[in-house]
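Page 47, continued from p. 46.
Same chain as before, 338 aa.
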Amino acid sequence: MTGNVAVVGGGIAGLETAVRLKALGWNPIIIEKSSSLGGHVAEWNCLFPDLAPADKLVKELVDAADGIEIHTDTEIASIFYTRKSYSIVLSDGSRFMCDSLVLATGFSLFQAEKKEEYGYGIYDHVITNRDLELWFNTGSDERVPSDPKAIGFVHCVGSRDIKAGNTQCSKVCCITAIKQAIELKEKFPKAEIYCFYMDLRLFGRKYEDFYIRAQRDMGIHFIRGRVSEVSETIDGRVFVKAEDTLSGKPLRVSLDLLVLMAGIVCNRENTTLAESISVQTDEDGFFRSRDNITHITESDRPGVFFAGTCTGPKTIPETLAEARSAAISVDAYLKSLK
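Result:
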């Protein structure tokens, strides 16, 4: 045995898994395709429902990973299974053997430009939830007006949508929209903010309180009904048509900014990686666990485990919990080989 464990992905799931494996006495090796660690969370401003700084969490995990071998800007070039070990060649030329793999490859966001009816990439003041988080961090995006009077959010863009090829709920879009709406209301107190939703799915601890705060205390408008049309007015504002299904009345509103809540989808690389190590993916493209109840971090392949959103949408607490569970499962597996 080498004691090596390849952790594919350097987001919060991969970092937490690697840190836990190191504490258990193994030698994790993180393989991250981008130039930095932290994944999507590293791009966020603050986290729901307590509005805690996202960079604090990422820094804690990166600091805890000090001393762990990390390869950034790197992907797996080839991988072979031989005699209960995996031979891995990386795109940076590194080669090593490992006894186990943890796939923590995360997720992608739905490409909002595919929903042409919402005008992303067409109209000047239509952005995505990711764009807004980057604006919170940098204050730099010419699409965001300096003093908006009206702002809208469209939920479920690319989620629960047969035409978009994704029937699943992204799980965190509703609460993310509420978080971002609150942040914008704090920055622009006089702005009217509208959230257009199919139904609100607020299952987590304090999530309902967060929603009540947004609606009752901050005056954010929640409109149950799909947006049917988005267009641009002659003065460059965004004109939205929708139906308020609770009142049964049509709604037309002009906005200075429209935010599309792009849903969570699988990483395109999942299929290639799955084929290279003989694990399966589900119809939605996420990795397939042994089951969705008691073995969510386990694959049908010896020594291959999953952590975080590579198996589907999850919150940050769920992602970290699964990372710890994956580390424990790897530990038990490696001890069984001795």
